[in-house]
Amino acid sequence: MIAAAGLCGGLVLWGIGLDTKAVGLLPGAWVLVPLVVTAGLELLRRTAPRPALILATVALVADQFTSGSVATVLMFTDIIYAAVLYGTPAAARRIPRTTVYITVAMTVGFTAWLQTVESLLIGVATALVAFAPASTGALVRNHREAAETARLRAEQTALLAEIDRTQAVTAERSRMARELHDMVANHLSAIAIHSTAALSLDDAGTSRDALAVIRENSVAGLAEMRRLIGLLREGDGEREPAAAPTLDALDTLLEQARTNGASSGLGFTLTDRRGTAPADDEDAGHPNTLPAPVGLAAYRIVQESLTNALKHAVPGTVAVELALTDHTLAVTVTSPFGDRPGPRAPGSGAGLVGMRERVALLDGVFEAGPVTAEDGAGGTDKVWVVRADLPVAPAGRAGEGDTTR
Question: If residue 226 lies in a helix (H) or strand (E), which one and from where to where?
């Protein structure tokens, strides 16, 4: 469209005899040659701006030997503008500087040659034809590049926000999965074991005891589910969320495990070596205060370890031990390991994964697996040991308490 408009405009100006000079070395229709060439070069203004500018410069110089056409000059200025706007970054920097040099050279040269004030108009005309479109193209290009940079920055910001949102959702789903597994698996495992025992043994007393345990775990599991729902609804204004369990509730947890594991020949002990606060503290007589995430992680690790013992341990004693230093809370759960007779609940391995994730979130150390230990009678037995070292803030002075239950 630009080429067609320039060509038609030039033909009209030639037809009515409106030229830039009254006399030229090549009069008459010779003025149409640069006009047609420049109009054709307009077709290359975006796809090949550099060759178009070089050839258009030659056409403009040739136009000076004819009677001249305003249309040729105007199309030349557009080609310079396009060369800066659509050319390479190096060309966009070089062309404006070159037009400045040309403008200065033309002004100084013609002033020295003609030695008249009017010769300054040649420099002004050169600036209007060369420097003005080149500088305009540079300004437009800079604005476009700034807008493109801002758009890319906005896209990167949106991408990073989406990545953060995805990671947050994934982390929250993992947390919910750990909470749901730790809350319900213990009760469902007990239900599965005792229901299997009730179905496999044709004894009314055994079935009645199994049903009692099943009912107790069903009620407890329902309460845990309600607590989880309360946690998920935190902040919606419907109700206050239930408090997270702490290590102070381990007695209740072990008592429940004793009830569930009695039929499998399992006993449970707790050795608490966390110590007590000094007598001059406000919380004297209470175990040293732990950060809430550490206390919850330790509780869940013990809970899951007891659940695994109910599923897989052979008859014997499951020992839970807590030890607190200035910087670490050590949680150790030892259970008998071997081929277990009678009913057992299937396992998926999600419990160990959840415990490992909890410890990793606190930058702690987690180990789980079978080891060989002395049985107290000179022999050795295999036991399954779960150990987690959870970093805590410096606990100050630790008392010398040692409580075994």
Answer: helix 204-232
Q: Which residues pair with 331 in a beta bridge?
A: 322, 388
User: Can you give the pTM of this predicted structure?
Assistant: 0.47
Which contacts qualify for 285-290: CB closer than 8 Å, 24 or more apart?
Answer: 287/247, 287/248, 287/324, 287/401, 288/324, 288/395, 288/396, 288/398, 288/399, 289/395, 290/247, 290/324, 290/329, 290/392
Q: How far apart are CA 325 and CA 266, in angstroms?
A: 30
Strand partners, 2: none
Helices 70-86, 2-15: inter-axial angle, 10-degree rounding: 160
Residue 39 in tokens: 């109009």
The residues of the chain that CATH labels 3.30.565.10 are 248-405
Q: pLDDT for 2-57, tens place per residue?
A: 999 999 998 898 888 777 765 667 777 888 999 999 999 999 999 999 999 999 99
Architecture category of domain 248-405 in CATH: 2-Layer Sandwich (3.30)
Closest residue by Cα to residue 361 from 305, 295, 293:
293
The answer to whether 382 touches 372, Cβ cutoff 8 Å, is yes
168 contact partners, CB below 8 Å, separation of at least 6: none
The sign of the CA dihedral 394, 398, 402, 405 is: negative
Of the candidates 139, 94, 138, 101, the residue with the CA atom closest to the CA atom of residue 123: 101
Structure tokens at 282: 């406000």
Burial bucket for residue 227 (CB in 10 Å: 0-12, 13-18, 19+): middle
DSSP for 95-132, written as a single string: HHHHHHHHHHHHHHHHHHHH-SGGGHHHHHHHIIIIIH
